[in-house]
Amino acid sequence: MNEPLRFEPELDFGAQSGDGIERAGFRLQRFEVFNWGTFHQRVWRMEPGGDSVLLTGDIGSGKSTLVDALTTLLVPAQKVSYNKAAGAEARERTLRTYVLGHYKSERGDTGMAARAVPLRDQNSYSVLLGVFHNEGYDQTVTLAQVFWLKDPRGQPERFYVVADSALGINEHFAGFGADIGQLKKRLRALPGVTLFDSFPPYGAEFRRRFGIATEQAMDLFHQTVSMKSVGNLTDFVREHMLEAFPVEARIDALIAHFDDLHRAHQAVLKAKAQIERLQPLVADCDRHAELVRETDHLRGCREALRPWFAQLKGELLERRLVLWHAELERLANRLERLREQQKQQRRQRDELTRAMYDNGGHRVGAIKAEMAQLEAQRQEKAERARQYGEVAIALGVTGAADVDVFDANRRAIETGQAASLAARDDGSNRLTEAGVTLRELRLLHGDITGELDSLRQRRSNIPRQMLALRDTLCAALGLAPDALPFIGELVQVRQEEQEWEGAAERLLHNFALSLLVPEAHYADVATWVDATHLGARLVYYRVRQNVQAEPRNLHPRSLAHKLQVRDDSPFYAWLEAELARRFDYACCDSMEQFRREKLAVTRNGQIKAGGERHEKDDRNALGDRSRYVLGWSNAAKIAALAKQERDLAARVQAIASQISALKSDVADHDKVFKLWQQLAFYTNFAELDWQPLTGAIDRLQRELDDLAASSDVLRTLQAQFDALGIALQESDDVLHQTTRAHASQEEKLRTTQQQRAECAIPSTPRRKKRAPSTSPRWLPCRATST
After folding, report:
1. Co-location of 156 and 254 in the same domain
2. How far apart are CA 537 and CA 463, in angstroms?
3. Total Cβ atoms within 10 A of residue 92
4. Looking at residue 86, what is its pLDDT?
5. Per-10-residue mean pLDDT for the chain, 786 residues long?
6. Is the domain of 281 the same as that of 303?
7. pLDDT of residue 543
8. I need a surface site. Which of 25, 176, 520, 542 has the fewest CB within 10 A?
9. Are 662 and 434 a contacting pair, CB within 8 Å?
């Protein structure tokens, strides 16, 4: 190192006031450096004491080093230009050279390039510290930065310190060992000390304490602290001391303000025009209000008619009630007379019954009772026989004419039930099978219909399930479907090679259903596919940019020659190379040639690969265009699917008709089974044999006729009894009719009384003149017919 530098504290440019110097604001009291540049191994201290100082010394004595240290303490690293005060070129010194203490360059014996020689290694650390004091407020602020090396070949690490008290390197930044973390822990424990890991919060913190409003002041400090000359004072002041005036923002604000005024003026003009146009509407509104008032007046007049009509109706109902009361009284008197007459007729009947009993009538009564009992039994058995006959006719067997036929029918029940049950079960099985077939055909028909609808909306032959999967992928990534084409959308069989179309479709089917993914979208597509459950099989190829395929010598009859790639596709080169590499199959017209080739395919779709493996997949017809996926025209596929749709529709209709017939057959067999069950309900022929009861009734009738012929008195009494029975029946009928009329008259009277109550007819006669009352005299009455 050269001769040490000197500073002269006597030089001061502050203003004199009285007997002393006024030193307003924060001034540098003490500045310390440790291991900074050539200031090595101990703390170097400069104490201006708040005064202005002049640094002097020989070249290389360290003036610029101290200036750079002070600049590093106050200015962001990206703005610092080291050794600028000495007029050095850019990048001559760096923060790394200062921390390691580079002081010379030397060249080795081998004659290699010069190498900088440092005073320190990567195990040392450096400290810059400045103490600032404000005498007016008696405040002290310490700023410090600590540097160390993590990577011997990298830039130094650092942290920043702001303290509200005076700190010193020897007292507070030494004796912590080799761990910088211990130094940080010690400093954080001190009162009023704040540590920062980056310059922006550190710079904001000390500018806040110093009262520096903007960063521009620090930029001015950086420009002046090491300034050697000023070429143009005006440019220097404009660039470093004045803030930029936002001219464009002010112009935009003026334009926006003018636009607001213009829109406000247009709004006023529009409002005036609207008011002028609304004047006729205001007049119409006034006319409408007048009509509404007139309508309300007329409606009030109409409503006033209701009480008046209620009064008239009440008077009419009052007169009707008088008539209904008279009619009800007349019917009550007639009922009383008819009941008395009926009592007399019943007494006469009882007397005639006793007289007939005294003259042999007890036997007649017994015979009649027995005949009535037998007649009831006969009718019951006859009804059962009739029901049995209907069931037997429905089953095609003979009715129960005698016990032998009945027993034969009983023996046939079990066989008939078993046969009908078997037929019903067989029909049910066939119905179930037909239903399953119909459901499968309808599902297939729905798939074909959906595929047709999809095909008619596009030109591609790719199945709609694969297109839906691509649409989901593109929607998730925000891409257009054209950005990720299927190979089948870009490749087709040449028109002159249509005889090989079926074999090409079979060989390229899976390859044609693969997606092409450009390099720009590859990462997003791979991530989405990996994170998503697709529910289907997806193959995609990563197509790199500017990848040149090696030229290949194709077979003269190669299948690749028969394929055409869309020439406007950005994947044209990749597809041509891939088709040549994967599908260089010889198209063989004969089996002799097929056996000779290593890779070969026939028109019938037999494939030979590797010279050993042969494959022919005839699960689907070779010419089934509904499965084709190549090409950019789908007219042929639409036609094939349309024919399949029509055929399936006809099959569905036939199966539906068959199901309808099977349902009818099952219902018929079930009906026959239930008829056999009904026939089995009759277990005894005696329940159906009603003919013997008819003979017994005839014998009793003859006996009754004989008794009546043998006694004239009994015959006379019987005639009187029969006549009295007729008269009693007539009296019952008249009494019933009169009772109904009496009940109807009571209902009319109640209805009329209710209507009168609704009309609120007063009990006193209506006066011609009456004082006004707060309550209405008549209540509204429902419009009912009188």
Report:
1. no
2. 13
3. 12
4. 53
5. 50 45 80 90 88 82 86 85 60 81 73 74 89 90 91 87 91 85 89 91 90 78 64 65 72 91 93 90 90 90 82 84 85 84 79 68 67 78 73 72 70 78 85 87 85 81 89 93 91 90 89 92 93 92 76 84 89 89 90 91 90 88 84 83 86 88 84 78 68 73 68 66 81 86 87 83 44 40 39
6. yes
7. 92
8. 520
9. yes
**Residue 75 resides in a domain:** yes
Give the pair of three-digit tokens for residue 108: 């080795």
Q: What b-and-e string marks burial along 231-259, b requiring 16 or more CB atoms within 10 Å of the CB?
A: eeeeeeeeebeeeeeeeeeeeeeeeeeee
Identify the bridge partners of residue 56 per DSSP, sorted by sequence position. Answer: 6
Tell me, yes or no, whether 399 lies in a domain: no
Euclidean distance between CA atoms 635 and 632, whole angstroms: 10
- Residue identified by tokens 């009384």 is 753
Which residue pairs, CB below 8 angstroms and at least 24 apart, start in 642-646? Answer: 642/452, 644/448, 645/445, 645/448, 645/449, 645/452
Q: Is residue 613 domain-shared with residue 574, that is, in the same domain?
A: yes
Owner of token pair 């019917």: 331
- In a shared domain, residues 207 and 313: no
Q: Which residue carries 């999967």 as its tokens?
A: 469
Q: What is the CA radius of gyration of the chain?
A: 61
State the residue range of the domain holding 214: 6-240
Is 277 inside a domain boundary?
Answer: yes
DSSP type of residue 571: T
The answer to whether residues 258 and 235 belong to one domain is: no
Residues 22 and 157 reside in one and the same domain:
yes
Cα distances (angstroms) measured from residue 99 to each of 195, 198, 611, 667: 20, 18, 73, 105
Q: Please tell me whether residues 343 and 295 are part of one structural domain.
A: yes
Q: What is the DSSP string of 670-692?
A: HHHHHHHHHHHT---GGGT--HH
Is residue 497 a contact partner of residue 562, using CB atoms and an 8 Å limit? Answer: yes
Do 612 and 562 reside in the same domain of the chain?
yes
* Bridge partner list, 6: 56
Q: Which residues of 352-456 form beta strands (DSSP E)?
A: none
Question: What is the distance between the alpha carbons of residues 180 and 228, in angstroms, rounded to a whole number?
Answer: 38
Whole-number Å distance between alpha carbons of 238 and 245: 11
CA 680 to chain centre: 61
Model pTM? 0.37
User: Which H or E run includes 517?
Assistant: strand 515-518
- Would you say 544 and 521 are in contact if contact means Cβ atoms under 8 Å apart? no
Q: What is the rounded distance in angstroms from the CA atom of residue 557 to the CA atom of residue 430? A: 54
DSSP state of 735: H
Which of these three, 240, 257, 285, is where a domain ends? 240
**Consecutive H or E run containing 2:** none
Single residue among 589, 611, 633 that ends a domain in this structure:
633
Q: Count CA atoms closer than 13 A to 45's CA, side-chain side.
A: 11
How many domains, in total, are found in the chain?
3
Specify the DSSP class assigned to residue 558.
Answer: B
Sort strands 540-543 and 515-518 into parallel, antiparallel or unpaired.
Answer: parallel
Distance CA(705)–CA(697), nearest Å, equals: 12
Looking at residue 174, its pLDDT comes to 87
Q: What pLDDT was estimated at residue 775?
A: 38
